[in-house]
Amino acid sequence: MGPASFPTWTNAFLGNNIGGQDFYTGVPGNPALYQTNQGTTTTVTISDIQVESTNGTPATGWELVTGDAETTDAGESITWTSNQILNLLPNTPTSQVGDACSDPTSPDGLTGVNLATNVGSLTVECASSESVSSPRTGTVMLGAAAPTTLTVTLVGTGLEAVFLGLLLPS
User: What angle (nearest 5°) sits at the alpha carbon of residue 42, between those of residues 39 and 43?
Assistant: First the structure.
C-alpha cells in the first residue's frame, strides 16, 4: 500500500468531473491508500484512534470517514470493520453509492447498510461482479462516530484504494 492523490485511477469517482460536476477534485495531499501490487488482498488496521483538541483534551463530535477511492470491479471487494457503527454518507443528489458496487447478490452490491435508512453496522462490504469502463457514478462513503479502530480489507483483481479522513464539528 502507498499514499495516493485523487483520482487514484482515471475512471474512479473521487477526483473526477462527472456529468459536469466535480466530485472531490482538488483535494490536497494524498488522502488515499492504494494497493501497489495487482491481484492481491491487503488488510489495513488503524487502532487506538484518538482526536484531541488544541489544548490536548479528547475532541467530541468528530467522525472518521472512509470509502472506496478507486473502482471495485469484477471479483473485487472492500470490507470495512469498525468498533462503531459505519453509516452510509450519500455522495450524489440522485444516488447513495452510484454503480460503485455491482454484486447481484445484494441491493447495490453493498452489504451491512440498510439503503432505505442509511443505517449501517460494524462491518460493511462493497463487492462487484462486473466492471464499468466509464467513470463511476458514485462511490461508497462511510462515517463512524469517534471509533477507536478501523480495519479495511481490499481484494483486488487489479488495484484497489481506500480513503481516510475526519469530519470535524463546526
Answer: 160
Separation of alpha carbons 170 and 164, rounded Å: 19
Residue with cell 472506496: 68
pTM for this prediction: 0.90
DSSP bridge pairs for 154: 42, 78
Q: What is the phi/psi pair of residue 131, to 5°? A: -115, 145
CB atoms under 10 Å from CB of 36, counted, come to 11
CB hemisphere CA count around 74 (13 angstroms):
4
Element (H, E) at 27: none
Domain that holds residue 119: 2-167
Report the domain count for the chain: 1
* CA atoms 162, 29, 97, 48: torsion sign: positive
Which grid cell sits at 141?
A: 462513503
Residues 97-141: tens digit of each pLDDT = 777 777 555 656 778 777 666 668 999 998 888 787 677 788 889
Could you report the per-residue pLDDT of 2-29, keeping only the tens digit for each? 999 999 998 888 999 888 889 999 999 9
